């Protein structure tokens, strides 16, 4: 059994990945170990409930949102290779170290609505190389394709780390001593699936292509798809994407008619791009129904995007429905 500490230097050497990038990943992972400790204790550590504050997107913050954010910022600021960071919970980017070559973007605790009811939550992260010149918001506005790596830590029945440095996807499980141990190499998302994930309560607001797509799935073997589908909705993207990585499926958070100025609920830089890189590296697909997620040129740090990701056959099918 290989630990993360044993695996990482070998992986870097095998693929000629810079040691500085490995060290940034190590920092993220060590922060997530701390966050896992807080999540596990819940009420015993007094970390449940609302923080009484809001983030820039007008969302109420939970205590654990703030704690996880603070832990990541503290650890990353201490790493000389990190030039700056951007968080779903921060108004603007945070400058870190002048000589750093990397930028880290993260959603410190995704799935906040699940924290107080003991359902899986997770940390999502994306690592970018910093271009030359002064650090500015524009430094972060790189397409998902440009990511140097990405991943997530799922705080579920097991705490699991899943990451890619663009040479495949690796899955680690936190053991009883707080050490991440490699438990799966290169999982592949099945091309076809019979499982979908969408918040059905928004159905009446969906645009016609999504209405049609989900109606076809619900029709099962009596409809044009000719097979029965199952549905899951955890309301934690990390849990959802992990399930899809393990056994296939399609995850959707589409734009809807309530506010057409908002392309969707989820954020391109902190949620959609890092998860899309993981899924693409594992043979899956991801897009906003118009183009591949990783090809979108970002225009803002907190930009939202419509999300369709998972098993290739379904993502391509729903994209086709948007084209006709
Ligand atoms: P958050 O970053 O505020 O936690 O929101 C993102 C979460 C995702 O994890 C999940 O897929 C989605 O929001 C759930 O939305 P809904 O509450 O509409 O079911
Ligand atoms: Mg989130």
Automatic annotation (TrEMBL):
The record's annotation in NCBIfam families points to: PRK09293.1-3, PRK09293.1-4
What protein name is recorded for this chain?
A: Fructose-1,6-bisphosphatase class 1
**Pfam families in the cross-refs:** FBPase, FBPase_C
Give the cofactor note. Binds 2 magnesium ions per subunit.
Q: Which CDD domains match?
A: FBPase
The reply to whether Cell membrane figures as a keyword in the UniProt entry is no
Q: What is its main location?
A: cytoplasm
Q: Which organism is it from?
A: Neisseria chenwenguii
* Record GO terms (molecular function): fructose 1,6-bisphosphate 1-phosphatase activity; magnesium ion binding
High-level lineage? Bacteria, Pseudomonadati, Pseudomonadota, Betaproteobacteria, Neisseriales
Q: What's the top EC group for this one?
A: hydrolase
